[in-house]
């Protein structure tokens, strides 16, 4: 490399990608289709449009178009906070004493605090274009709810967020932020829906669950005129929108002639990982790259590393369509962990297929070690990472230390998907040395697997 | 303007300014010297070096050097999070329907959440260069403490932060963040210093004050080997470091041939305002610009708009050297306000002199209206502002609306000094409509003025 690579690899505004990259278009073998849970037949656009907006449904079902134009109205939204930073981790490299070059793409400087905004904007935009008046969604930790509240404020749409009750109580400031952006926030379960009432009748003191909040949000959307439901992860149209992360990273690296050898992302539902790797994986599938791809998950919720490849429900209530994916079973109950965004039993279908086909490696990490890495990182790079994102830091540091042993000058790119501002209780636990690691027992896993529906394809195509 | 101005006016890494701008060098009439509180004689370097680091003291006393080189070791630090964003507020302009062009310099994307990091880095660097092992400081709301903790982690120095007890209790996450960066945090008053013990003896249940925390931090520094005290506002070397804000803003605007007509900043101790306006004011003092400068303060703490120009103490304990400044008196007790960073009785001496000489306008704002402006801003620009910074938003919006009336196409630049992530309780109060405005009565002001020391110059030179 002739010119010195700056700490921040910049893209000018006109260099922000104008297309999302549809990774499925590069796959010879596509992911299995989504099935209707009643008929077990592939679901079509009409079936999905009852719940979701039209254009996202079209994108969900589009497996062939490589580049999907980002409408001008969404480019506007992206310009308000993008390009996100692509940073050369000079200080981290120095403290590790590694010959590796480490880069990270940081999605945490927007007010929602994470990459979630990249799909919230498009979903709100399409809803507005379609003539809808309002949207509903659910939120657990609060990142997605905040992102949707911001996007709906920007485009002028009403929004109702069903927030898992225990989260709404533990994170009053997340609630405040969502409400300040003008959204209605309802702790779930609530008396405002039949689904909520039924759960409250069973257990009036329940603290709620993501599965229940999803059910309430969908019910509200279906019963409201000019209203639809939006989801922030797992689905392929969400991953498509998130490809802006990888597209930007690639454009910035290309300007300096840099090709990453190893690309690392944390994996919950897969939207951040899938978005980051999309164009790089496209090159690999086309035989133009030998890069390695590493998904990092918590040892307490080992979807890739200990899960099964099977058709499963997306929610604990078993109401959603069936998705063929790596799953621990919708009945799997992960132990408490501070990386709330990684506590999901399933995984995006495209990433699951790529994993099964050997294109993605996966590893699981203990949260105590993840926080060690996070704190080492923040002391030299300055940035407080989200616990989820810190899983990628841990793996990147391990790969860089491996290079130190071998002397190889590899190029490592990792995704820093969000800020830890709203996770300081986790760092408090780390400082107090009260963080606990839980490795699920085989019995606990088996209880989860038992919840996977028993349909013909599951047994034959199981990994 | 031929080329369209982008939403973000970028500077490449090599365009980050390599000099701080010393505004006093451009002033024909300099601010009055700092006085020793006992002798009432101007204090010299030796007097200040007992408490502060050597190089900052040199900078504090340097009134003539226009450009002070930023050492390579500090440029390194700045590269970790700078340049900060200079953003064209296209969305705000549109919603206001103004012909004005609005730009803002956003200092809130670094983990400390505000501009404070711009001086924390240099102060830690100089301490390390001088061979010190540790530093002490105090923090109220927590921004400065966090910034110093980050800087000391980066340069490898120990740090003790005395945090006002009530803040440490109300903001446990600020405490966590500071501790995670490796600093020792002591709620003040504490039993670890004579100053703290004396106050606790008087009132064991006191919630602490900034004045007391300052006393404890200075005492600890003076009693510790290879240790000094650092301060994050008010002093001229702090404002010098903060000139990086204005230097960057000017460099980015210059690239597009833009000269602001109105420059607006919120004013607490003056470091953010002074840093933002420095090079632009230099042009004005040299007769090269007709720009207007507006300082915005809370109506509850009207230092510029209702204060006096007099020698006064920097702390409520009346232990610091005397500074000639706009002041409400160190005994003035501002009503509770959510803009904690603007609740200071005094003002940087350079800005005070420029105000008295007519170069800076000032206005005070009600916090209810400031929050109205903040929420309107965040809905279109996306960014959650700190309540302090929102004072500048309010004034910028008012100026833009004035342009709408007159049809003038003025260029407005304002400083967005920090993020509101740690101020969500304030937004909660706003949403609940429990925000209160307090306009100090003349009696309250008079009580404050009565605390201003009665020394000859004060009566003769009072404004």
Tell me the overall shape of chain A.
globular
Number of distinct helices of chain A: 19
Helix content of chain A: 40-55%
**Oligomeric grouping of the chains:** homodimer
Name the biggest interface: A-B, 42 and 42 residues
Largest sheet of chain A: 6 strands, mixed
- The pLDDT mean of chain A sits at 94
Radius of gyration of chain A, whole Å: 21 Å
Computed structural class of chain A: alpha/beta
Query: What is the first-to-last residue Cα distance of chain A?
Result: 43 Å
User: Which blocks of ≥5 consecutive residues of chain A have pLDDT under 50?
Assistant: none
Strand order of the largest sheet of chain A: 3-4-14-9-10-13
Q: Would you report the number of β strands of chain A?
A: 14
What fraction strand of chain A?
15-25%
Write a compact overview of the structure shown.
The structure is a homodimer of 463-residue chains. Helix content of chain A is 42%, strand content 16%. Chain A contains 19 helices and 14 strands.
Account of the 3D structure:
The structure is a homodimer of 463-residue chains. Chain A is α/β, with parallel strands linked by helices and 463 residues long. Chain A contains 19 helices and 14 strands. In chain A, helix 3 (72-79) runs antiparallel to helix 5, helix 5 (117-129) packs parallel to helix 6 (143-155) and helix 6 (143-155) packs parallel to helix 8 (172-180). The mean pLDDT of chain A is 94. The A-B interface holds A 6-8, 10, 12-14, 79-81, 91, 109-111, 150, 153-154, 172-173, 176-177, 179-182, 375, 378-384, 419, 421-422, 424-425, 427-428, 430-431 and B 6-8, 10, 12-14, 79-81, 91, 109-111, 150, 153-154, 172-173, 176-177, 179-182, 375, 378-384, 419, 421-422, 424-425, 427-428, 430-431.
């Amino acid at each position: 490399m002739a010119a010195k690579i700056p700490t921040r690899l910049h893209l000018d505004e006109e260099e922000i990608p104008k297309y999302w990259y549809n990774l499925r278009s590069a796959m010879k073998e596509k992911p299995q289709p989504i099935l209707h849970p009643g008929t077990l037949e592939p679901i079509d656009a009409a079936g999905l449009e009852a719940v979701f907006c039209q254009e996202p449904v079209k994108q969900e079902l589009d497996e062939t178009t490589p580049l999907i134009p980002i409408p001008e109205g969404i480019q506007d939204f992206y310009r308000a906070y993008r390009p996100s930073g692509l940073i050369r981790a000079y200080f981290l490299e120095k403290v590790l004493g590694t010959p590796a070059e480490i880069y990270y793409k940081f999605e945490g400087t927007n007010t929602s605090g994470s990459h979630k905004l990249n799909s919230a904007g498009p979903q709100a935009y399409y809803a507005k274009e379609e003539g809808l008046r309002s949207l509903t969604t659910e939120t657990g930790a609060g990142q997605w709810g905040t992102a949707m509240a911001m996007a709906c404020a920007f485009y002028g749409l009403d929004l109702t967020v069903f927030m898992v009750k225990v989260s709404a109580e533990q994170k009053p400031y997340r609630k405040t932020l969502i409400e300040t952006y003008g959204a209605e926030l309802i702790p779930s379960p609530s008396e405002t829906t039949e689904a909520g009432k039924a759960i409250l009748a069973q257990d009036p003191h329940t603290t709620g669950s993501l599965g229940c909040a999803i059910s309430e949000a969908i019910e509200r959307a279906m019963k409201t005129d000019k209203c639809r439901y939006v989801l922030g992860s797992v689905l392929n149209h969400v991953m498509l929108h998130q490809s802006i992360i990888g597209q930007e990273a690639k454009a910035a690296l290309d300007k300096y002639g840099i090709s990453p050898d190893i690309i690392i992302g944390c994996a919950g539902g897969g939207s951040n990982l899938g978005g980051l790797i999309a164009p790089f994986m496209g090159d690999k599938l086309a035989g133009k790259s030998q890069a390695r791809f590493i998904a990092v998950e918590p040892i307490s919720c080992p979807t890739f590393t200990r899960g099964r490849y099977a058709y499963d429900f997306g929610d604990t209530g078993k109401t959603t369509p069936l998705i063929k994916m790596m799953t621990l079973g919708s009945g799997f109950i992960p132990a408490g962990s501070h990386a709330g965004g990684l506590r999901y039993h399933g995984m995006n279908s495209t990433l699951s297929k790529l994993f099964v086909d050997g294109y993605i490696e996966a590893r699981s990490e203990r949260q105590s070690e993840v926080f060690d890495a996070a704190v080492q990182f923040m002391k030299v790079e300055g940035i407080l990472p989200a616990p989820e994102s810190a899983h990628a830091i841990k793996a990147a540091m391990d790969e860089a230390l491996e290079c130190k042993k071998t002397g190889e000058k590899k190029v490592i790119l990792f995704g820093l998907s969000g800020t830890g501002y709203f996770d300081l209780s986790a760092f408090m636990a780390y400082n107090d040395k009260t963080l606990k690691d839980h490795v699920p027992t085989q019995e606990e896993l088996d209880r989860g697997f038992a919840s996977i529906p028993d349909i013909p394809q599951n047994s034959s195509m199981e990994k």
